[in-house]
Amino acid sequence: MLQPSLNAASKWILRNTLISNESLTPEFKFHLITIATPLWMSTPDECPLPDPYWAFYWPGGQGLSRFILDNQKMFNGSKILDFGAGCGSASMAASVSGAKKILANDIDKYALLSTKLNFRLNNLKDSKIQYSSVNFLDDKNQTAPSNFFKNSESNGNFVLLGDMFYDSDFAEILFGWLKKIQNQHGTRVLVGDPDRHPLVETDYLKRYKTKFTKTQLAEYSLPGYVIKEHYGFNTAKVFELNFQL
């Protein structure tokens, strides 16, 4: 599939999504594909942008962003790596909360474009945001997060992840990378998730080679329309992960 230019993609997003603030963070608006848009029931060939997951505000991202907004002192002056940024909600929440520096990372360049459009939609400046589509899980790209976090106090470093634990094989890779980042830089790892199996089921957790403890920091009841749009998940939880040395 030929991929549109960023300019063409931007026009397509503005034309085919709906501006919505129906979420756990009603103070933010997003360009989204919702039940009210024709694309909700469309086939992949009707969308020129591959797998536009960034046009959905997933439950874990909603919970994580709500937690940031509700605990702004925790993130004031911090360095934030928003891994798998998607629609950019966590980066937006961190920016509003006074984060000093934010690295919005997503391997899909259109997700980063969506993030920029959502910042603009909310009249938020993104001058302290760095955008990167580099795959940080690739060994040859390991230095990028390290360079971002170096020369900063460890208690002010965060890696944020929303809705990333949908597959146990991918989760295993992700846990190994997060452990390395945490051990090197003392980063706090915060996860937003609606209790997907790879993150909560005991059988999965026992099989992972990378061991960690999981502390629940918050739980939010999802509004009815969010439950309907997201496969019946009815809560979003925020966890902190601490990896064993």
Automatic annotation (TrEMBL):
GO terms for cellular component: mitochondrial matrix. This is ETFB lysine methyltransferase. One of its GO terms (molecular function) is protein-lysine N-methyltransferase activity. It comes from the Eukaryota. It comes from Caenorhabditis brenneri (Nematode worm). Belongs to the methyltransferase superfamily. ETFBKMT family. GO terms for biological process: methylation. Keywords: Methyltransferase, Transferase. InterPro entries: Ribosomal_L11_MeTrfase_PrmA, SAM-dependent_MTases_sf.
